[in-house]
Amino acid sequence: MASDHGGPPHAKSDHRSIPRTSELCELYLGRLALVVERAGQNASAFIPIARRLERELAEAKAEAEVLTRLRKRQTPPPPQQN
Prior knowledge:
Layout: H1 22-39, H2 47-73
């Protein structure tokens, strides 16, 4: 029986859902900076990860801004008439 993504059953996708927040992206970028510092000549291998984290950070910030704007648009419910 094949898994959901079409591969063999033993190759199940293990993509865990990690909440995307600006804070987490910033934390991961900081940790990645330490890894890159220690990687020496192999540091360029981490560029795709850095790009992904930077993209996730930008998206998280954009989503937060949209939610903030939407919350500002909330109007109180109309008064009930008796």
